[in-house]
Specification:
The protein is mainly alpha-helical and 140 residues long. It has helices at 22-34, 38-45, 49-55, 70-78, 84-88, 98-107, 111-122, 127-139, and strands at residues 4-5, 11-12. Helix 2 (38-45) crosses helix 3 (49-55). The longest helix has 13 residues, at 22-34. It is elongated. The chain starts with a strand and ends with a helix.
Length: 140
């Protein structure tokens, strides 16, 4: 896996950039566990329930047994378990590091909108120009 340097020069796993956004997801998973609905959530997401349990269980070193990576964040968001604003908890997208900002920007676009953009482009419609024109008219 590719590694990055953080500001202090320390080598960092790219998935560690998302760890600070995992707390609201873990809180939501704990709510499901308290209601004894974790197994139903796991089925809805296509995961085993032990995998979800590992996300909220710490090992002897005080680290979570399973990290909540962008893959898992996407699954939770796409399946309406939690929303991007709930994960960001008041943080502005512009204040996020580049990678998480780009990820959350993409996750905020509803699937129906993405499908519309794909279909429009397949038909030769300049979606970027269309959006710019619409936004220019709305901004006046």
């Amino acid at each position: 896996m590719k590694r990055l340097s953080n500001k202090s020069g320390e080598i960092k796993n790219p998935n560690d950039l998302y760890e600070e956004y995992a707390r609201p997801v873990r809180n939501r998973l704990m709510e499901y566990r308290e209601r004894r609905e974790l197994i139903f959530l796991a089925e809805r997401l296509g995961f085993s329930s032990p995998r979800l349990t590992e996300m909220i269980t710490m090992n002897r070193n005080g680290e979570y047994k399973r990290k909540i990576t962008p893959y898992y964040l996407a699954k939770f968001i796409e399946n309406d378990v939690i929303s991007v604003p709930e994960i960001l908890h008041g943080k502005k997208l512009d204040d996020l590091p580049e990678r998480p900002r780009m990820f959350f920007e993409r996750m905020m676009i509803p699937r129906k909108t993405l499908q519309g953009v794909i279909e429009a482009r397949a038909r030769g419609i300049d979606v970027d120009r269309l959006l710019e024109g619409t936004l220019d008219r709305e901004g006046r």
